Amino acid sequence: MNKPSNEMGVNKKHYVFEEKDPKHVFTNFDEIVRFDTDFWNVTKDLPIRTGSLMRLSEESFRNWRIGITPENKQLIKRLGEDFRQKDYCEKQRDSSIRTVETTDWIDMIRNGMTRAMVHYAKEVLLSLDDGKRALNVCELASGYGKVSVSLAASLLAQGSNDLLSRTRFYLVDYSEEKLKRAVEKLEPYNPAEIVTVPMSDEEFLAAFKEKSDVMLSLCHMHKRPFLGDLLEKINDSLSRKGVVISGDLHSSLPSHPMLMYQLLERMGTENRRLKLFRDMFSAFMDAKTIPASAEENRAITDHQEYWAGVYNEILSSKSTGTMRSRHYVLGAFDTTKKRVALMEDKGFIIDPDKVRRAFPKAKIGSNPVHMAPGSDRASVVLAMKGKALKG
Amino acid sequence: MDFLPVRKLDDILALDKMVQELTCKLSYPMGSLLKIAGRYLPNFGIEVTDQNRAELERSSLTNYFSCWGRAAKVTLEAIKKATTDAGFPVNNSHLNDEVGKMTVDVLMNLARADKTRQFMLTDIGAGDGETTAAVFDAMCNEGAFDLAERCEFLLVEPSEENLWNASKNLRDHRINQEHKVRIATVGGTNHNFLGRIKDGESDVIYSSAVFHHMIFPTYLDRLREGLAADGVLVVGDWYTTIFKHPAFVAEILRNLDIDKPGYAEFLSLFKCSEGDEKRLTQHMDRDEIITNFRMLRYIVTIGQEFQKIPVENRDEFLEGHCSFEDRKVDLESKGFMTEMKQLSGHHGFSKMHTNVRNVDPYGAAKVGAFAKQPILRKQR
Fold first, then answer.
1. What stretches of chain B adopt beta strand conformation (E)?
2. Is B344 helix (H, G, I), strand (E, B) or coil?
3. How confident is the prediction for chain B on average, in pLDDT?
4. Residue A82 sits in the same domain as residue A115
5. Contact, B27 vs B306, CB < 8 A?
C-alpha cells in the first residue's frame, strides 16, 4: 500500500488529521507526508482510490495545500518517484488492473496517438535523413516498445529499409522483462542497434552522451509531477532539429480537490469518508476558482466518466482478482494548453508554421493534435528543440 | 480408424466431432476442423465437393460464431498478452495501421482522378471499429479532411453489439472535429451478412484480419459484385501455413501437452508419424518456417494464459490461415488483379510503387490492394 518510504526517514506513525488553520499550506516535508498519509487513508480499501498527493503535477500541489519550496522539492519528487515505481510493480504483478483500466476508448485513443506520433516521427526522420548518417530514436517509458515497433513497421511497409538499417533505437523503461520483449519485437526489423536502458527517464537522460533525433513518449508525461525538470533534460539530449513527440492524456480533474470530491460522490463513497475529505480541504473547495475552456471542461467530464465506468466494471465483475485490484485516480495530468506553455517555457518550438519551416518536405498538420472532438482529454504534441533556457 | 478420406457431410461431421473430443480438455482446444482453409482440408482427409461445399461453409461459420460468442474481455486480454509474450513483432493494431494508410492512398488517387466524386467505403468485419478508426487516422495524418466529407463509411459486421460499440467509438474520433463523417452499419448474426452489400456501391472495400476466418473464397464473389467498376479491395491479413497439414497441428497439440493416448490417436487418425512436420518443413522457405514457429509459440502462450481464465471464455486455435500465394490464387480466380504490373494503369494506383506492403518482417502480416478485373475470367 502507499506508505512513505522508510529510507527517506519519514515518520511512519499514523497521523490523525487535526485542523488548526484550514487555510494552512504545508511546506515542512514531515508535515506534508503526514497530511498525505491521512489523505490517502480517506479512500483506503476502496476499489478506486485517490492515491498519494505526491502524484500531482507541480502546479497543482498548492490547490491541495502543499507548497513547493526549494527545501522540499527534491524530497517530494523522490517520494513521488517511489510511488510511481510501486504503482508500476503493482501493475506488473496484478494484470487485472490493466484489464479493467483499458477501455475501448482508451485503446482507440492510444492507437490513434501512436499513429499520429509515428506519422510525425517518420516525417521528421525522412526530412533529417541524408542517406548516410545514423539516426537516433529514443522511446521513454517504452514498455513493450509500442511506438518504436509501430515506427519500424511503418518504415518497413513503405520500403524505407535502408533508413531503418541506420536507425538506432534507445528503449528506456524500469522493467527489464518488458525491454526484453520489446527487443524481441524490434529486432526482426534489423535496425542499426537496439539499446535498452532499465532505468528512469531522468536518470537515463542525465547520463545520455549521444544526441537523439526523435524522442518518443506515449502516455507517460502525466506521470511526471515535476515535468519541467524532465523537459529540460530532453531538450539538452536532442540533436539540432531534434524533436520530442509526446502523446498524452490530459485533464484538470486532479488539479483541484473539488473535482475529485465530485467523482468520489458520484461513485457513492460513504459520507464518513466524504466528510473527512471535506474537512481536509474545507478552505480549498471553491469550484469557481477553476478556469477552463469548453474543451478542458469536457476533458474533466470525460475523465470522471472514465473512472465511473471503471468503477461500474469492477462492481459488475465476477472475478475476485478484479474486485481486489487497486486503482489510483490522481496523476500529474495537466491541460494541453499548459503542457504547450511549459514546453515553450523550456525552450521548445511548438508553433506548426515554425516546425514546417524547419522541415519543409514533411507533412506536418496541426500541432498539437487533439485526439477527441470537443475535448482536451488526449493530444499529441511535436516539440522541436529550441534554445534551452538555463536557470 | 482407417476410413479417411471422407466426403459425405455426416461422415465429415463425425470425424470433426471425434477430433474435437480428443483435444477438448486442453487449456486451448483445437476446435472444429471446419475452420481450416478449404484448400487444406484434403490434407485432413476431407474431400470438398460441389455437394458438400455450402454445408461445410455454413458449419464453419457456425463454429466461428459460437467461438466468438464465448469470447469475453478476459479472452481478448489473454490473447493480447500472449501476442506480446510470444514475441510477435506485430499485432492486429499494426495491420490496421497499414490497412488505413493503404486505403487512404488508394482513395486519394481515386479522388485526384475525379475531383467531385463521392465515395462509399466498406469495412468488412468491422468489429469495434478499429480498422475504420485507422482509416480515419490516416486521413487526419494526411490532412485529407475535405476528402473525408466526400466519403460515406459502411460498417459490415455480424455482431450487433460490436457495431454499436463501433458507432460510439467512431463518433468520438478526432476526424469529426473538422468534418462529420457519415457512418452506416450492416449487422445481423446470420450467415449471409455479406449479402446485404449492394452491387457496385463500394469504391473501396477494406478489411483487416478477417479473411483468415473464411474457409472458401466464395466471399470474394460477393465483394467483387459490391465494388464499383474501378473499385479496389484492400486486405490486411495474417498469412501462415501452420494449419496446412495435420503433422503441424500434431506438433501444436504436443506443445499444448495433450495426453499420450490422445496424441497417438490423432497421429494414427491422420496417418502421421512423429517428426513428419520436420520432413514437411524441408520444402519451406526461411520466412515460412520462422512464421510458423512464432505461431506455434503464440498458440502455446495463449494456452498458458487461458489456464488463468474461465473454461467457458476460452477460444479454440484452428483458423483458416493460408499462404499469401494461395490467397493471391483465390483473388485471381475471383476476378481481382493482384500484380502491380496489371494495376499500374489503374487510377487508384498511380504514384504507387507496390500494391503489397509487408507489415511483419517475415511476411506473416501483409496489406495488399487489388482491383476488380473489368471482365471476370471464366472459372474452371
1. 119-124, 151-156, 182-186, 202-208, 227-238, 336-337, 356-358, 365-372
2. coil
3. 91
4. no
5. yes
pLDDT per residue over A188-212, tens digit each? 999 999 999 999 999 999 999 899 9
Assess whether A129 and A192 both reside in one domain.
Answer: yes
Which tens digit of pLDDT belongs to each residue from A148-188? Answer: 999 999 999 999 999 999 999 999 998 999 999 999 999 99
Distances A213 to A157, A167, A232, A237, A363 between C-alpha atoms, Å = 21, 10, 16, 9, 17
Same domain, A319 and A358: no
Question: Does A14 map to a domain?
Answer: no
Which of chain B's residues have a Cβ under 8 Å away from the Cβ of A103? none
Chain position carrying cell 485507422: B134
Length of chain A equals 391
Domains of chain B by start residue, with CATH:
9-90+244-313 (no CATH), 93-239+326-372 (3.40.50.150)
Residues of chain A contacting B173 with CB distance shorter than 8 Å: 108, 112, 372-373
- Residue A288 is part of which domain span? 27-93+252-328
Does A111 sit within 8 Å of B133, measured CB to CB? yes
Number of structural domains chain A divides into: 2
What are the phi and psi torsion angles at A103 (to 5°)? -90, 170
Q: Which chain A residue has its CA at the smallest distance from B176's CA? A: A373
DSSP for B53-105, please give it: HHHHHHHHHHHHHHHHHH--HHHHHHHHHHHHHTT-S--HHHHHHHHHHHHHH
CATH number, domain of A187, equals 3.40.50.150
∠ CA B149-B154-B159 to the nearest 5 degrees? 145
Quote the DSSP letter at residue A28: S
d(CA A376, CA A158): 32
High-pLDDT (> 70) share of chain B, %: 96
**Going edge to edge, which strands form the sheet with A375-384?**
A193-197, A167-172, A135-140, A212-218, A238-249, A375-384, A369-372
CA–CA gap between residue B266 and residue B21 (Å, rounded): 11
Handedness of CA B1, B2, B5, B10 (dihedral sign): negative
- Interface predicted TM-score (ipTM): 0.89
Mode of pairing for the β-strands spanning B151-156 and B336-337: unpaired
- Which residue in B97, B177, B354 is closest to A370 by CB distance? B177
Give the position of cell 478489411.
B207
Q: How far apart are CA B349 and CA B367, in angstroms?
A: 14
